[in-house]
UniProtKB/TrEMBL annotation:
CDD domains: S1-P1_nuclease. GO terms for molecular function: endonuclease activity; hydrolase activity, acting on ester bonds; metal ion binding; nucleic acid binding. The keyword Nuclease applies. One of its GO terms (biological process) is DNA catabolic process. Keywords: Disulfide bond, Endonuclease, Glycoprotein, Hydrolase, Metal-binding, Nuclease. It comes from the Bacteria. This is S1/P1 Nuclease.
Length: 257
């Protein structure tokens, strides 16, 4: 009875916790989008490296390994926190790394001809995931509220927080599989895709930060969010899924194409 009582006390606390990542669906959508924008040479090289698995299938790898303490040092790679009025290049980077440095390191390792096959596969899977994380606005957040994790809200009368709303609630409650969601995203022209793929990770983090600042203003502590919030922000969700996908494809085409 004592154990059951303790579990009942802890359950509400677990309900308020937030996983620090896009939902599995979100990451897989980004991988699926990228898969469809690979050049033939890159698609063939990646299929060989991943033993036939697609980018969507490996997109959650970096989250799946979090339970293994061997990979604990990679946990800071999933996000970056810096002030709303500062640029990433204006602040002292974390000595433990962040999502920007993680992406840069993955790219450098994948381009190095001396990288072992085992490391190449590992950092390829990490890259697929981290590019997805970069484009979830609350992964470019503020340290004082842990990327929105401390901004407690209600989502359809369920306890949540601003980070979790963007990680999971918006996408998962939409009720589509990753293939269904990927197939319903807007169709961009080739010119639009080329435009979105311009720049590098330093340019992209500043762009995401602009969206993040608007997301921070989108809800107040304790606010109850319903259909209206989804209606207002769903276009942004789709935009970030598409943007993450086509930029991931651009990186991989540059390395393998």
């Amino acid at each position: 009875m004592r154990l059951i009582f303790l579990l009942l006390i802890c359950l509400p606390l677990w309900g308020w916790s937030a996983p620090p990542y896009w939902s599995k669906t979100g990451h897989r959508v980004i991988g699926e989008v990228a898969q469809h924008h690979l050049k033939r040479k890159a698609r063939k090289a990646l299929a060989e490296l991943l033993s036939g698995e697609g980018l969507a299938e490996v997109a959650t790898y970096a989250d799946d390994i979090k339970s293994d303490s061997t990979f604990r040092k990679f946990s800071p790679w999933h996000y970056v926190n810096f002030p709303a009025d500062a640029k990433y290049t204006d602040v002292t980077p974390s000595p433990y790394g962040d999502v920007v440095a993680g992406i840069q390191q993955c790219i450098a390792i994948l381009k190095d001809p001396n990288t072992s096959r085992e490391d190449e596969i590992f950092y390829l899977k990490m890259l697929v995931h981290l590019v997805g994380d970069l484009h979830q606005p609350m992964h470019v957040g503020r340290a004082e509220d842990r990327g929105g994790n401390d901004i407690q809200l209600q989502w359809f009368d369920r306890g949540t927080n601003l980070h979790r709303v963007w990680d999971a609630n918006l996408i998962d409650d939409f009720g589509m599989s990753y293939t269904e969601l990927a197939s319903t995203l807007p169709r961009w022209s080739r010119n639009k895709i080329r435009q979105v793929q311009q720049g590098d990770v330093l340019d992209w983090v500043e762009e995401v930060q602009e969206i993040t600042n608007r997301v921070y203003d989108s809800a107040e502590v304790g606010e109850k969010l319903y259909y209206r919030y989804r209606y207002v922000w769903w276009d942004t969700v789709e935009q970030q899924l598409l943007t993450g996908g086509v930029r991931l494809a651009a990186i991989l085409n540059d390395i393998y194409g």
